[in-house]
Amino acid sequence: MSIVNDTQITNDVVRDDRIWQARIDQALSTGLSNEAARQSHDDADRVHREETFEAFREQCATDIRPILDFSVDMLREWGLTAKVTETLRDQPIRMARTFDVALEIEKFGGRGPGRLTISGTEAHEMARVKLLIGPSHIGGEGTEHVGSVSPWNLSEDVVGGLVAMLIEQLFR
Question: Is 7 helix (H, G, I), strand (E, B) or coil?
């Protein structure tokens, strides 16, 4: 009897083996397909973020930086000291890259300093705009105005207007 029962159990397991093998095949097929699709989507998203970030950096170099450099020349004609800086932060590698282009106006006649910073981050499609006035003395607090804008809206008029706003704020 035991042999018959063992044979019957073995036959039942073999018949059931086909079902669980099919279930494993189905789970692996679906799971690996979903994983490949997710990986493909993640890769496409990463490439898009990198391309958008590089386009922002290019825009800074070709459109924004010349306006800020021209503003520095104007400020110097009026006897003020100013400079344009660019900062790329790409460390640590696991963090999204950030690029800043800034106009810095040194303290003058009891006013300032002032700084306009336009920042782009690889992880975001919006640019961050920050106006910082002061502090006018050691230990003082500065005034900060922060906003966001689509990089594609950073036209000559908008960037020039931001520089004008910075200078207006310095004289308030």
Answer: helix
